[in-house]
Amino acid sequence: MNVRTLRPADIPAVAEVEKIAWGENAATPETIARRAAVFEKGSIVVLDGEVIVGYAASQLTDHISTATWSEQTDDGQIEKSHVPSGSLAYGVSMSARPGISGKGVAYHVISHYAEMYLGGGCQALCVGSRVPGFAKWRAANPNATLQDYLKPLDDGRSRDPEVRLYNSGDFRVLWGLPDYYPDPKSRGHGAMMVRT
Ligand SMILES: CC(C)(COP(=O)(O)OP(=O)(O)OC[C@H]1O[C@@H](n2cnc3c(N)ncnc32)[C@H](O)[C@@H]1OP(=O)(O)O)[C@@H](O)C(=O)NCCC(=O)NCCS
Q1: CA-based angle 169:170:176, to the nearest 5?
Q2: 147 alpha carbon to ligand 1 midpoint, in Å?
Q3: Domains of the chain by range and CATH?
Q4: Which atom of ligand 1 is nearest to the CA of 53?
């Protein structure tokens, strides 16, 4: 698999991948184009041969917070949230075609960003993860909190499948995000994660 910066001609294929991964919450072709126009090298595609199997967008920022995804990314448009002089790289969105064999799209995206950003002088890679295992776990543990859920298990990894995906990319949880993204399985919660 190869990773490279998104080109305008990639946009229809990327929009298709977004639709498969995110359904009605997919980034539109206009949003995909705007992110790349605001910060060209932050938008990347993952290719299996000639076929686009993954997409990710990122921005630079000078701070991270407990605010919602929408607030931290200018509703995914990054026009107002991208800070060219910022030393923190922030993951705005990632999507993949299902059933990618081998190491998967997330592995290639994280490796690319780690080399580009951490190798290029950024202090940290940051991402807000949803916590799609939370609603089910909470139903079985009605008195427990998001903090309880986010405590690492004995092997140092999370009980949540999406947080664990980022754990595999050497991210650790920094803090819980009570109101991050309107995902029912996460009950709207998330986790701010960093890799340094
Ligand atoms: C996240 C994503 C890009 C990862 O793609 P990938 O690296 O090719 O790998 P997979 O889709 O096989 O997922 C890898 C692992 O993460 C888990 N995972 C990732 N996101 C998950 C989620 N939202 N809910 C449940 N499990 C999830 C998968 O179950 C899988 O676990 P396994 O290896 O134990 O089977 C892809 O799953 C996707 O597009 N998901 C929908 C959009 C999304 O959640 N994006 C991430 C937040 S921006």
Answers
A1: 100
A2: 22
A3: 1-122 (3.40.630.30), 127-196 (no CATH)
A4: 8
The partner residues of 89 in beta bridges, in order of sequence, read: 60, 125
Mean of the pLDDT values across residues 122-147? Answer: 98
User: What confidence tier does 47 reach under pLDDT thresholds 50, 70, 90?
Assistant: very high
Strands 44-48 and 51-61: antiparallel
pLDDT beyond 90 at 168: yes
- For the stretch 115-136, what's the b/e string if a residue is b when 16 or more beta carbons lie within 10 angstroms of its beta carbon? ebbeeeebebbbbbbbbbbbee
Tokens in use for 132? 């799609």
Contacts of 119 (CB under 8 A, 6+ apart): none
Q: What is the pLDDT of residues 97-117, one digit of tens each?
A: 998 888 999 999 999 999 999
The pTM of the full predicted model, rounded to 2 decimals, is 0.96
Contact 130, 183 (CB under 8 A): yes
Cα-to-centroid distance, 85 and ligand 1 (Å): 31
